[in-house]
Amino acid sequence: MVAMSAFSPGTPAPGENTASGPDLSELLRASARGDERAFAALYDATSRRLYGLVLRVVRDPAQSEEVAQEAYLEIWRSSARFDATRGSAMSWMMTIAHRKAVDRVRSAEAASRRDQSYESASQDRPYDITAEEVERSLDAQRVRSALESLTETQRGAVQLAYFGGYTHTEVAALLGIPLGTAKTRIRDGLIRLRDTLGMQP
Amino acid sequence: MNADIHGLSGAYAVDALDDVERAEFERHLGQCPECQDEVASLRAAAVELSHGSAATPPTALRASVLRQISTVRPMPPVTPTGTPAQAGGGGTVTSLESRRRRNPFTWLAAAAAAAVLAIGALVWSPWESEQPPPSATEQVLQAKDAQRFDRTVDGARATIVRSKSLGKAVIIADNMPAAPEGKDFQVWFQNPDGAMVSAGLMPHEAKPTVSMVLNGDASKFVGAGITLEPAGGSPEPTSAPLVLFEFS
Question: Measured between CB atoms, which of A77, A122, A166 is closest to B55?
């Protein structure tokens, strides 16, 4: 499967923020000063994660491309407002992208265009096995395990909200739970996820 | 207003609040360091969920992004002396403009939130940015005594947000169908004696969300309603209300 050499230090990590990847906070700070090359590096380091999230929520590839572009423009414009003391650069960027994706799926126009092409669109292109790839699958595995520590309702609520772009009242209806309880399930689920992943509260 | 507002932190962190709740929560967030910390940590946890979803974007995206950013100046940092200079500097504001066209209310809620956040400049949020002075709608949404009334009819949702202290109310309609040819949707306030007073005509806009500030001193009324009236509106309702709101 994966050669151990993939773990060797110094292996370039194309396409993703990893332990060995570029310092995204520094790239954001340079972008805030108008450094377009820094922003290109930032794009290269984050675009698979960011576009992947947008595609997961929006589903339609053409709209996902538009939304990802809007997100990057917003990231560029507001790069000076990123505050590293309040969270990681990746988290900040993904939050912007998620918000844009959710705005898009909630607009009536988009709802009618949203199709079922996600499965085919999300079949990722062949990708060389690299340290980044290994790390990505380990991260995904870690998150899958953490999700198992949630109750079924918590897990359902978190996933419908985050990937489905539904409001908590819609989540309640979809899960057949009383109105007003979905927000609690989402919060409890995220707290458990955070604590299981060993992230700082 | 809402004793349980802290409990919205999780839904907020994953963008699962509707626009009105979001504006309410962001108003609270500006004053609640615990919620700020919790939201930051829950957002980070949510972002972890996306590890399994990475996908290679179309190659054209990179060039489009880089071409577009070269035409836009990044906004200035928030300086300790206050909000950044407004001016035309930040320039084209392309994304906000396009967003405003597409969904005025989402933009408004974000702008309202940003106005609140800019005060403390504490909160980590993508939306603190150059702000126009708050509009009447934003003022109502930000009012400490804002009350919210929701009604859903056939998949359309109408929300009235009222501030007694401001004497103003705003109606926000989601997915409302266009009025038939030759007709208008008219909004009414109800007096304590039951009489209905016109509060204005809903704008004819083929948009998923339309909002309007209602005419009249909203603090005096006990309810509101919407009727379908001949184009241009009527002095008093001529048809049965499609929806009624009771201000309690």
Answer: A122
